[in-house]
Amino acid sequence: MTITEKVQEALNRLLEMFRTGDLPAAVARTVIRAKAGYERPSDRWSLGNRLLMYLAGTEDARGFRQWEEVGRHVRKGAKAFYILAPCTRKKTVREREVDTETGEVREVERERTVITGFRCVPVFRYEDTEGKPLPEADYTPPEPPPLFDVARKFVGDVKYRPFVGRYYGYFDPARGEIVLSTHDAHTFFHELAHAVHHQVKPGGLKPGQHADQEIVAEVVAAALCEMYGFSGYIWHGWEYIRHYAGQDERKALKAVMGVLADVEKVLDVILGAAEEGEGREAA
Known about the structure:
With 283 residues, the chain is α+β, with helices and mostly antiparallel strands. It contains nine helices and eight strands. The protein has helices at residues 3-20, 25-28, 47-55, 64-69, 148-151, 185-200, 211-227, 234-244, 249-282, and strands spanning 61-62, 72-74, 81-98, 105-125, 129-131, 157-160, 169-172, 177-180. The strands form three sheets. A three-stranded antiparallel beta sheet has the order 1-4-3. The chain has a three-stranded mixed beta sheet with strand order 6-8-7, covered by helices on one side. A hairpin with a 6-residue loop joins β3 (81-98) and β4 (105-125). α7 (211-227) packs antiparallel against α8 (234-244) and α7 packs across α9. The longest helix has 34 residues, at 249-282. It is extended and about 70 Å long.
């Protein structure tokens, strides 16, 4: 495959994502980033290149020598994927400038950097390397979301992990933990709703994603977003519910009405736990 063909293939993959709306959370949501001191080369990449990395199924990709610099080497037979680096050159341009004191307009020459094209840069996934372990990054948010302490009453732990394009977050009933790949409060509320629903529903939640359980979690999350001042999620929640109702608005409404009792129960438990915590703090 020629360089031109590799560039075109990378661009086509990005364009297809935008055409279909099948975008990783890096575009659609607030994607989790490691705290200062844990930076990776990809943190300085363009959004398009980070999307290509997520599509490759990894959250850390580097060039051959970059991996060697941190004590790891690429496994024999591993295949690279390609990101796009701009080709630039300096260009002198004439621009008009207004003197702020006199109002005089004059022409000045300035040197600008212009992009003349792109070149392909081969990079390898962390999963295709071996060697010295990398420092474990800290992905916890600067401030915890509302109801974070409430979540601890229903799960053993709330963990933040890097985003690799598979999920925004999930509740694991077997381990009793919530795992999040975004600092987005809505996602946290959604998984908190799952955790509480699992406790109040006789027999607990069914394994996997089921329409009734997802709709309960989404309605609860949308309600909590409104209560705690996170706007813009009502439309998203409605689209999410429509998805589980086969895009049929009547079925979506019927589905919501059918789970309102569970929604009310889950909200009552969450808000009741929040009030208990506030009462202890006041005392």
